[in-house]
Design goal:
With 218 residues, this protein is an alpha/beta fold. Helix content is 42%, strand content 19%. It has one domain: Rossmann fold.
Length: 218
Protein backbone atom coordinates (compact mmCIF):
# COMPACT_ATOMS: atom_id res chain seq x y z
CA UNK A 1 0.00 0.00 0.00
CA UNK A 2 1.14 3.54 -0.72
CA UNK A 3 0.66 6.72 1.27
CA UNK A 4 -1.65 9.58 0.50
CA UNK A 5 -0.92 11.06 -2.92
CA UNK A 6 -0.53 14.81 -3.22
CA UNK A 7 -3.42 16.43 -5.07
CA UNK A 8 -3.14 18.47 -8.24
CA UNK A 9 -3.35 22.24 -8.52
CA UNK A 10 -5.66 22.78 -11.49
CA UNK A 11 -5.72 26.26 -13.04
CA UNK A 12 -8.68 26.93 -15.33
CA UNK A 13 -8.94 30.14 -17.37
CA UNK A 14 -11.08 31.29 -20.26
CA UNK A 15 -13.19 34.17 -21.51
CA UNK A 16 -16.28 35.32 -19.65
CA UNK A 17 -19.30 33.40 -20.93
CA UNK A 18 -17.33 30.35 -22.08
CA UNK A 19 -18.96 28.15 -19.42
CA UNK A 20 -16.26 27.75 -16.78
CA UNK A 21 -18.71 28.00 -13.89
CA UNK A 22 -21.08 25.34 -15.23
CA UNK A 23 -18.28 22.96 -16.15
CA UNK A 24 -16.53 23.25 -12.80
CA UNK A 25 -19.79 22.89 -10.85
CA UNK A 26 -20.37 19.59 -12.62
CA UNK A 27 -16.81 18.46 -11.93
CA UNK A 28 -17.10 19.21 -8.21
CA UNK A 29 -20.50 17.49 -7.99
CA UNK A 30 -19.12 14.32 -9.62
CA UNK A 31 -15.75 14.05 -7.90
CA UNK A 32 -15.16 14.11 -4.15
CA UNK A 33 -11.41 14.36 -4.74
CA UNK A 34 -11.81 17.87 -6.22
CA UNK A 35 -12.30 21.04 -4.20
CA UNK A 36 -12.80 24.61 -5.38
CA UNK A 37 -10.31 27.16 -4.14
CA UNK A 38 -11.97 29.84 -2.02
CA UNK A 39 -10.72 33.30 -2.92
CA UNK A 40 -10.23 36.26 -0.61
CA UNK A 41 -11.70 39.65 -1.52
CA UNK A 42 -12.01 43.15 -0.14
CA UNK A 43 -15.50 43.70 -1.56
CA UNK A 44 -18.56 43.47 0.68
CA UNK A 45 -20.51 40.21 0.80
CA UNK A 46 -23.47 39.97 -1.56
CA UNK A 47 -26.84 38.60 -0.36
CA UNK A 48 -26.51 34.89 0.36
CA UNK A 49 -22.71 34.81 0.37
CA UNK A 50 -21.16 33.08 3.39
CA UNK A 51 -17.72 33.76 4.87
CA UNK A 52 -15.39 30.82 4.27
CA UNK A 53 -17.77 29.19 1.81
CA UNK A 54 -18.00 31.65 -1.08
CA UNK A 55 -15.13 34.01 -0.18
CA UNK A 56 -12.89 35.08 2.64
CA UNK A 57 -13.95 38.69 3.17
CA UNK A 58 -10.98 40.83 4.23
CA UNK A 59 -10.62 44.53 4.89
CA UNK A 60 -8.04 46.33 2.68
CA UNK A 61 -5.47 46.51 5.49
CA UNK A 62 -5.61 42.76 6.10
CA UNK A 63 -5.45 42.04 2.36
CA UNK A 64 -2.32 44.20 2.02
CA UNK A 65 -0.79 42.44 5.03
CA UNK A 66 -1.40 39.08 3.33
CA UNK A 67 0.33 40.38 0.20
CA UNK A 68 3.38 41.46 2.19
CA UNK A 69 3.51 38.09 3.97
CA UNK A 70 3.29 36.19 0.64
CA UNK A 71 0.02 34.50 1.64
CA UNK A 72 -1.42 34.64 -1.90
CA UNK A 73 -0.56 32.45 -4.87
CA UNK A 74 -1.90 35.28 -7.01
CA UNK A 75 -3.89 38.46 -6.49
CA UNK A 76 -5.45 41.08 -8.67
CA UNK A 77 -7.49 44.28 -8.58
CA UNK A 78 -10.87 44.21 -10.30
CA UNK A 79 -12.44 47.67 -10.42
CA UNK A 80 -12.26 48.95 -6.81
CA UNK A 81 -11.90 45.55 -5.09
CA UNK A 82 -9.02 43.14 -4.67
CA UNK A 83 -9.17 39.37 -5.13
CA UNK A 84 -6.57 36.75 -4.26
CA UNK A 85 -5.99 33.00 -3.94
CA UNK A 86 -4.88 32.11 -0.38
CA UNK A 87 -1.80 29.91 -0.43
CA UNK A 88 -2.56 28.10 2.85
CA UNK A 89 -5.90 26.70 1.67
CA UNK A 90 -4.36 25.37 -1.54
CA UNK A 91 -1.38 23.74 0.16
CA UNK A 92 -3.40 22.10 2.96
CA UNK A 93 -6.02 20.69 0.56
CA UNK A 94 -3.35 19.27 -1.77
CA UNK A 95 -1.58 17.69 1.21
CA UNK A 96 -4.87 15.90 2.00
CA UNK A 97 -4.84 14.44 -1.50
CA UNK A 98 -7.50 16.74 -2.96
CA UNK A 99 -7.25 18.34 -6.38
CA UNK A 100 -7.61 22.10 -5.91
CA UNK A 101 -9.38 23.85 -8.79
CA UNK A 102 -8.78 27.55 -9.47
CA UNK A 103 -11.06 29.59 -11.72
CA UNK A 104 -8.87 32.60 -12.52
CA UNK A 105 -8.42 35.05 -15.35
CA UNK A 106 -5.42 34.78 -17.65
CA UNK A 107 -3.34 37.24 -15.63
CA UNK A 108 -3.93 35.24 -12.47
CA UNK A 109 -3.38 31.97 -14.30
CA UNK A 110 0.03 33.05 -15.56
CA UNK A 111 1.01 34.17 -12.06
CA UNK A 112 0.06 30.78 -10.59
CA UNK A 113 1.99 28.97 -13.35
CA UNK A 114 5.06 30.99 -12.45
CA UNK A 115 4.68 30.42 -8.70
CA UNK A 116 3.67 26.73 -8.95
CA UNK A 117 5.38 25.11 -11.97
CA UNK A 118 3.78 21.73 -11.24
CA UNK A 119 0.24 23.09 -11.67
CA UNK A 120 -2.04 21.74 -14.40
CA UNK A 121 -3.07 24.64 -16.63
CA UNK A 122 -6.24 24.38 -18.72
CA UNK A 123 -7.68 26.98 -21.06
CA UNK A 124 -11.42 26.69 -21.76
CA UNK A 125 -12.15 28.12 -25.20
CA UNK A 126 -15.34 28.75 -27.19
CA UNK A 127 -15.66 27.13 -30.63
CA UNK A 128 -15.63 30.66 -32.10
CA UNK A 129 -16.31 34.25 -31.10
CA UNK A 130 -19.82 34.21 -32.53
CA UNK A 131 -20.75 31.35 -30.20
CA UNK A 132 -19.29 33.33 -27.30
CA UNK A 133 -21.30 36.40 -28.34
CA UNK A 134 -24.46 34.28 -28.42
CA UNK A 135 -23.82 32.91 -24.92
CA UNK A 136 -23.15 36.35 -23.48
CA UNK A 137 -26.27 37.75 -25.08
CA UNK A 138 -28.56 34.92 -23.93
CA UNK A 139 -27.42 34.82 -20.32
CA UNK A 140 -29.01 38.26 -20.02
CA UNK A 141 -26.62 39.82 -17.51
CA UNK A 142 -24.93 42.44 -19.75
CA UNK A 143 -26.10 45.08 -22.16
CA UNK A 144 -24.79 45.42 -25.71
CA UNK A 145 -21.95 47.74 -24.70
CA UNK A 146 -20.82 45.39 -21.92
CA UNK A 147 -20.95 42.40 -24.26
CA UNK A 148 -18.77 44.24 -26.76
CA UNK A 149 -16.28 44.98 -23.99
CA UNK A 150 -16.19 41.34 -22.87
CA UNK A 151 -15.56 40.21 -26.44
CA UNK A 152 -12.60 42.59 -26.67
CA UNK A 153 -11.19 41.12 -23.46
CA UNK A 154 -11.83 37.61 -24.82
CA UNK A 155 -9.75 38.35 -27.94
CA UNK A 156 -6.89 39.46 -25.72
CA UNK A 157 -7.18 36.38 -23.47
CA UNK A 158 -7.24 34.00 -26.44
CA UNK A 159 -3.80 35.27 -27.45
CA UNK A 160 -2.39 33.61 -24.31
CA UNK A 161 -4.00 30.23 -24.95
CA UNK A 162 -0.69 28.68 -26.00
CA UNK A 163 0.74 29.38 -22.53
CA UNK A 164 -1.58 26.71 -21.11
CA UNK A 165 -0.74 23.01 -21.17
CA UNK A 166 -4.24 21.99 -22.27
CA UNK A 167 -7.06 23.59 -24.24
CA UNK A 168 -10.62 22.30 -24.03
CA UNK A 169 -13.10 23.67 -26.57
CA UNK A 170 -16.46 23.93 -24.85
CA UNK A 171 -18.74 23.29 -27.81
CA UNK A 172 -20.59 20.46 -26.07
CA UNK A 173 -20.74 20.29 -22.27
CA UNK A 174 -20.62 16.52 -21.81
CA UNK A 175 -17.60 16.20 -24.09
CA UNK A 176 -15.83 19.08 -22.34
CA UNK A 177 -16.45 17.45 -18.96
CA UNK A 178 -15.10 14.12 -20.18
CA UNK A 179 -11.96 15.84 -21.49
CA UNK A 180 -11.45 17.73 -18.23
CA UNK A 181 -11.64 14.56 -16.15
CA UNK A 182 -9.34 12.78 -18.62
CA UNK A 183 -6.74 15.51 -18.08
CA UNK A 184 -6.86 14.96 -14.32
CA UNK A 185 -6.45 11.20 -14.67
CA UNK A 186 -3.61 11.57 -17.17
CA UNK A 187 -1.77 14.04 -14.95
CA UNK A 188 -1.98 11.73 -11.94
CA UNK A 189 -0.50 8.95 -14.11
CA UNK A 190 2.52 10.99 -15.19
CA UNK A 191 5.70 9.09 -14.31
CA UNK A 192 7.29 11.85 -12.15
CA UNK A 193 4.12 12.06 -10.02
CA UNK A 194 3.89 8.29 -9.63
CA UNK A 195 7.53 8.11 -8.50
CA UNK A 196 7.22 11.15 -6.21
CA UNK A 197 4.12 9.66 -4.58
CA UNK A 198 5.98 6.44 -3.80
CA UNK A 199 3.72 4.18 -5.82
CA UNK A 200 6.67 2.45 -7.49
CA UNK A 201 7.70 0.92 -4.16
CA UNK A 202 4.83 -1.52 -4.51
CA UNK A 203 6.61 -2.86 -7.60
CA UNK A 204 10.29 -2.39 -6.89
CA UNK A 205 10.50 -2.40 -3.10
CA UNK A 206 11.66 0.43 -0.80
CA UNK A 207 15.38 -0.22 -1.40
CA UNK A 208 15.32 -0.26 -5.18
CA UNK A 209 14.48 2.71 -7.36
CA UNK A 210 13.24 2.00 -10.89
CA UNK A 211 15.57 2.65 -13.78
CA UNK A 212 13.62 4.74 -16.25
CA UNK A 213 14.33 4.25 -19.96
CA UNK A 214 16.30 6.95 -21.71
CA UNK A 215 13.74 9.18 -23.42
CA UNK A 216 16.25 9.93 -26.17
CA UNK A 217 16.46 6.29 -27.17
CA UNK A 218 19.42 3.85 -27.16
Amino acid sequence: MTGLRKGLLVVVSGPSGVGKGTLLERLLARREDCVFSISATTRAPRPGEVEGRHYYFLDPETFNDWIERDRFLEWNQVHSAYYGTPREFVESARARGQHVVLDVDVKGGLEVMSAEPDCVSIFLAPPDLEALRWRLRHRGTENAEQIAGRLLVARSELKHMDRYAYTIVNDELERAQTQLEAVLEAEMARTPRVIADGQVHALFGPDLEPVLPNSEGP
